[in-house]
Every structure is written in structure tokens, then in C-alpha cells.
Amino acid sequence: MDAGTYAELSESDKQQQIDALRVLAAQLFEQAIGCSKHADVVFEFSDGSRPVSGHSGVLCAVSEVFAGAFRSGMMQEGVVKVPPGISLTSFKGFLEFLYMGKARDLKHCRSADARQLVVLSEMYAVEGLRDWIREHGISEANLFAAVEFALVKEGDRTDILMACLRTVERLDLAMDHFRDEWLRGVGAHALQVVLAWITARLSCEGLTRRHVADGLRLVEQWFLANRELIGGKELRRKVQKLVKGLDLARMTRAQVEEVLAGSTCVVGGALLDKRCRRLAVDASLQQELELERYFEHPPPDLFQKGRGRMGAVAVHGEGESERLAVADPDLESVVIFSVQTGEKVATAQSPHVMGSGFIYGVAFNEAGELFVSDYYYNSICKHDQSGGLLATTTGPSPIEPCPGELRRPHGIAFAPCGHLVVADTGNGNVKIFDGNLNFQRVLAPGHALQHPLDVSVGGDGSVAVMDKREVLVFDWGGECLRVIAMEEGRRPLCLAFAGWGNLVVGNVWDDLYRIDVFATWCDSG
């Protein structure tokens, strides 16, 4: 049937013709893989075997390379040599595409190694096969092999790499999804790329410690699948690199110990090497808290210049009216979010000239008004619920100092009575103001502080002060109740009273962040 006759057919007749051709193609393909006597070409593999055959007419119709070889007499006695390194499974997939075209349900193609299919499509100039691979040929079973092939330096295989990424997203793959046979023979770099993709996707939803633990188990699974194929020292080095690429700081000590208990000495050693050892031995967090929501405020024009970062936070309200205030020290503002929706609802801007202030502490009073400390302008600002400025303290007088003046204020917190407690860092003390920013008194004036940076007030009026290398707890009258000295080398960063009366202190040591909980009524932490 010529093209003109076909064009005159109705749509149903056209479909019947297409279905008939597909049946014919399927029958010819079955002849080919069954080495039928009606096939006039045989394919010879590097081991001398001839397990499949073909039809020269079909081969010449779909590949000019095959047609040219037959015309030139290169195919003597109808024997076509298969390139070395091509498996029987992959070559059957290649033949299936030659006979059936871009059909979705190509079972032999799906079982084939995508790398070998790309090589065959390039070698024999078969149009459409590479497109089919990108659209339908990459699955969880051959994902790692396809990634490894796409990362080869020779040739541009960016399209294959992007198809692999889409497969990760489309199949919603997790780190505990892969079988041992899919990992066998896969290079560490390909595994690292897939781990990074899955981590990036999970980060959008909320990357948890459980996901990181699953990543460690995947590394363990890869090691077990390849330990007989890769040399000892080389394999150990690759495992250590993979482990270090995971966000181990998200894991609890119990989770690290659980992974260690079931791991080989190589993966366990990678967990306990230089960077990871402190986490496994020293991590003290015992409870896993799942990430519930992200709050984002990206000002691209400023962040692109390296400005903008998160400072102190404060929360006020309940239910739909619950709000989260986040200080941005560099941008001299406080962004207020709805906790329920995550949307920005207000901004409290510094009243001073942009570029000269430094927002540090934030706190809500009972009425929901926001108080902010400005480190460089030596002041406290009071804002209404929409971010509007209501009042501010005056800075230091260059002529005569007054009792309530502030120098480099940092952390602030409200007491149950409604008074504001301020860590007056530059003056080395803690000051108390009423709700209208009227100075009341200095807390514990007889107690010398070195560098008070943060404060928190308990339900009974106890005031915790974070000093240089220690935390001090005072009663509301100013009597020192307890001094908590940090361990050698540790530096406190922030503190807060917990709902049950204990004091929670965040501290850092040698780039390791730790949360400690102290009882405020006894002598031990």
C-alpha cells in the first residue's frame, strides 16, 4: 500500500493497518530470537555463539549502517559479529526495538542494560532508540548503571543523566528501595550522585534522621554487593567518602549505634573516622524530632550578595494566631510568619539607617507585641503586631551616662510579671525594663559578669544568664542560685527554660553542636 492509498483510509482502517503491521513485526521478531530458518542473518557473539538471528530486509530498512554493510559485502554468508561487551539480553532488547519501534511495552528493551543500548544505537545509527531510552528505558533496576554511563567523559550524555534524575523523581525513590543485584558492579561515583538526588528531593519534603540512616544502610548494601569486585584499600576509601557525604549531624546517637551494630568493619570504621567519630561517641541527643515545616524568606537581591541570615527566634499565640518571629541581623529586620501556614505575615524593620544596625534578640510580650534588640544602636525597639514601631529606648548619652542606658544589647526575654530582661553585653550586666521600656533596675548589681549574651526567664521568675564560659541562674531578686560551668573547650551559644523547669543550653565544641539539659534545683547537670 502506497502513501496516497493509506491517506485515503478512515481512522479505524488506519488503526487496523497499524495493528496488522505490529503483529507482523512481532512475528518476525519471534523468528529472530528463535533462530528461525526463515531468518537469513545470524548474529555471532565474541564467544563464538550464535543464539539469535535476523532478517536482512528489516535490518537494512531501519539502519543505514546495516544497509551499507550488506551492499559492500562485509556481511559474508549472512554473519554479523556483535561488538564485544554486549550481552545477549541487551542485544535482544536492541533487536526488539529494530523490529517493533518506539512501542512502550518492549519487555526485552526494559531488561537490557541502557548503556549497551546507547552504544548500539550510536554504532548502527538507529534513530529513536536513544529517545525511547530517555522516556521509557530507565527504571530503578538499571538506574545506577545508566547514571554511571552518563558520567563517562567521552561524548555528551547530559540527556541520559537528566532522564535518570527524572526517574528518581517520577518513581519517588527512597534510599531503602534498591536490590543487591542493582548495585553490583556500580561505581561509587554513580551511587554518590543518586544519593545526592534523593537527598535533595527529600529535603524539599523534610529530610529526617531516618532518611540519613537509610542512606548509611544503602552504602552498606553497596559495599556488600561489591566487596569481592573492588580491592580492600580502594573500597575502604570509597566507603569513607560516601559516608562523609551524608548529613550525619541529623542522626541521634542511638541511630548511629544501631547502624554500627549491623554494619561491617569497613562501614563502621568510616562512621568512626576523624569527622564522624565525635558524632558517634559524643552525640547526646536521644529523641528524634521530625521536621514539620520550613519557613523561608528569600530576598534574592540581597542574598545573592552574601547578605541575610537567621538570628534569634520567638513564638507567640496558639492555633491560627500562632506566629514565629525570626531576626535577620544583617538585613536589620524581623520577619514574622504564621506557624500554621508558613507564610510571611509581617516585617518589623529597624528604625535606623539601613546598613548600620544589627538586630540580635527578639521576644513577644503577652499581648503579642514584638521587642527587638539592636546591637549597634544600643537600643530596644517595641513593635505592634503588624511590625509598626511603637517605642524605643535611647542610646548612651555622650555627656552623662544614665542608669538605664544599654551598650551592645544581645538576648532579651520576658518575665511572667511582664517585665523585659535584657543581656546588656557592653556594660557587663543584666537590666530589667517594664513593658513600656522604662528602666527598672539592674539584676544582681553586685555580681560581676564578663560577657552576658543571652537570657531566659523561668515560670517562677528565675533568670538564666549565658556568660562567656558559664551559665548563671538568679532568682528574681538577684540572688545567684547556681553557676553551671561548661566543660573544657565548650562555649554556650543559647539557652532557654523548658516547660518542665529544666534549663536547655546549646553549646559548641570543635565544630560539634550539642544540646545539654540541666536541672535548676540540684548540683548536677
From TrEMBL:
Keywords: Repeat
Entries under Gene3D superfamilies matching the protein: Potassium Channel Kv1.1, Chain A, TolB, C-terminal domain
One Pfam entry name: BTB
Domain of life: Eukaryota
NHL repeat copies, ranges: 403-436
The protein, known as: BTB domain-containing protein
CDD domains in UniProt: NHL
Annotated BTB domain residues: 39-102
Keyword Repeat annotated: yes
Annotated InterPro entries: 6-blade_b-propeller_TolB-like, BTB/POZ_dom, NHL_repeat, SKP1/BTB/POZ_sf
